[in-house]
Amino acid sequence: MQATPDITPYLGKLISFRRDLHAHPELKFEEFRTSDQIAAYLGTLGLTVHRGLSQTGIVATLRGTGPNAADPRRAIALRADMDALPVTENNQFEHISKNVGRMHACGHDGHTAMLLGGATLLQAKPDFDGTVHFIFQPGEEGGAGARVMIQEGLFEKFPASAVFALHNWPPMPAGKMGVRVGPIMASTNRFEIRISGRGGHAAQPHNTIDPIPVACALVTQLQTLVSRTIDPLDAAVLTVGKIESGTIENIIPNEAAIFGTCRTLSTETLNHLISSIERMSSHVAAAHGANATVIIKPGYPSTVNHPKEARFMAEVMAATVGSKNTNDNVMPAMTGEDFSFMLEKVPGAYGFIGNGHGGLPGIGLHNASYDFNDDILGIGANFWDRLVRQWFEKEISA
To answer: What is the phi/psi pair of residue 4, to 5°?
Structure first.
């Protein structure tokens, strides 16, 4: 295999870049400064940079110097997300967020820096036989930025035979990596259930149809859908996160609203959950003389890794951190990821890179005290470099 260049000379710049992004977080589709910084970095590498997909998205292209590199069929894509979350940071270090109420609490600043590191190494020694497209995607946190980029012609403008992405994973110690064939992250769907009753005076409940006890009864019953209607070996989550109703203590309201999320690893289980929510809501409400309206708000599909690409990713992980530190059948997570849209269009794989500290798990994603572990920037950059080189070597041998 071609030798991977040494990342050490570039680490200081990558760490500074990552911390600058962390200090200036921007929310979905508002990543204008972030996009400018990424484009400027890529410009110093001499890469061809395309801007404007999904407003702030960037795609940079690097063609290797191999004899078949110009063949349009010999191209792959690597993706990093770059948006932040509406979280107020609770850290004390120097690179704490300067944008109050916004924070890189999911490590997208680190994902971007790792991919830039990979681009740096590949540009320093571009003796691979193909083309690589570096995708810097906005709007992953609830904006479906991947879907927007696809709708605006991402893979028509930048065709790729495979696409890969990497997410930092705090439950996994630094120095370890993981991937799996099949579903690795869940579909994410929200639901809203509106209970319609008949309001009135709290002292005369017999003249009303109180929607509040109906909502309470329904929440209790919804909890049985996973535990009693889904195979225990299947994976599903149903969580009610909010209930709204009423204005004051002595008035029975007309309506109550229930808000929640359901997540599954398979479409069949998702469809079962949705139909069960609708059936149960209607019948529980009817039992109390009320009516229920269910509104399903589709989110991201399940992130499903393709077999060939997932196994290949595991090989690259083993070459990067060692086979003992690579889990090729990592447990799937019930969190969601819009990279799923890219995997529906192009074969590929999505993996985890450990983000813990001192051999222990780190602070969880979306936590106000989270920070990306800069010690893994070099691992991530080396991984991306190896992945590109090994992919085109395998393509030649095949």
So the answer is: -85, 130
